[in-house]
Amino acid sequence: MSTSKVIKPRPYWHVDAKWLTGIFLLLLLNITFLIFLLVQVTGPEQGITLLTTTLASSFSFESGGLDTSSDLEIMRQKIAESPDGQWQPIPGLQIIVREEDIAGKTPREARLWFFRQMAEPLYYNGEQGLADIMTDPEMKKGLAGGVGPLGLISAATHRKLLVVFAVSGLVSLLFLGLLVFFSHRFGRLGSPGCVIFLVAVPNLILMGGLRGWLANAAQTPASTGAQALLSRYLQLAADVLPGIVQKAMYVYIFLVFLGIALLLVALIGSVFVRERKNKD
Fold it and tell me: Which end of the chain is more exposed for a tag (fewer CB within 10 A), N or C?
């Protein structure tokens, strides 16, 4: 009597289901990793840093940028002339600068220190946070219309994104499980590896191109009218975005290597099993 194991044939529709699941997973992972990056960017440390740099770059453009020393020299001069050794750079805003606050700091570091005093209340409490450090009623009225795009970088936004990321992550895990289920043998490693690789490579190329563009963005000469406005936004992008782009590149580089690793394990495993069968 034969004792050979009976191998059940694989349902033909598993192949179609695998491809459909893989396509859906590809789309879902793109969305999930984008949300993950937004969660990272809007977190307390990164979010406050982003707000700080945005404010500092916006207010420093006309004086020559974050690294120009003219404003820092004026600040030190005003502090030296002050009887109590302190100065309020923006009248109506409760931010006081003393010599020890900026001692040993570069112009960029001094600017970032100053505007962080605005960024922290803005991040945690929105426009009300800014209003709380204002003493000028007219300045407070100016906040009636909100703070524009800056309001998106906040603790409240971060909490909402965490919820969205949790939902998106769970749905992605569900489709990942389905892809593994519908795959066959070492395809259960190779299929997810292929999807992860296809998600990571285009985004990594995009981030690399964006990083190269940002390196040259601030070199656009400023003139008048529309060109000056464009130069202002390019300078803002060059000051704010490189850190975000670098963080995104780290994520996608990791995913590229993860995808390659899964594909290699699947390939080596299938070759090993095939060779073993041939020997038997």
Answer: N
pLDDT at position 280 is: 63
- Reading the block at residue 128, the tokens are 């009300």
**pLDDT tens for residues 142-184?**
887 788 889 899 999 999 999 999 999 999 999 999 999 998 8
Average pLDDT, integer, range 109-131: 94
Note whether 269 and 184 are within 8 A (CB): no
Of the ranges 20-29, 116-125, 137-146, 184-193, which one carries the lowest mean pLDDT score?
137-146
User: Which phi and psi angles does 188 have, rounded to 5°?
Assistant: -70, -20
- What is residue 9's predicted lDDT score, i.e. its pLDDT? 61
Reading the block at residue 113, the tokens are: 């220190």
- Rounded distance between C-alpha atoms, residue 81 and residue 236, angstroms: 33
Calculated CA dihedral for residues 188, 191, 197, 199, nearest 10 degrees? -120
Domain ranges within the chain, ordered by starting residue: 11-67+101-182, 184-280
- Written as one letter, the residue type at 71 is D
Backbone φ, ψ for residue 66 (5° rounding)? -65, -25
Q: CB under 8 Å, gap of 24 or more: what pairs does 229-236 form?
A: 232/61, 235/57, 235/61, 235/65, 236/54, 236/57, 236/58, 236/61
Phi, psi of 97 (to 5 degrees): -115, 130
Cα(175)–Cα(183) distance, integer angstroms: 12
Q: How far apart are CA 219 and CA 228, in angstroms?
A: 12
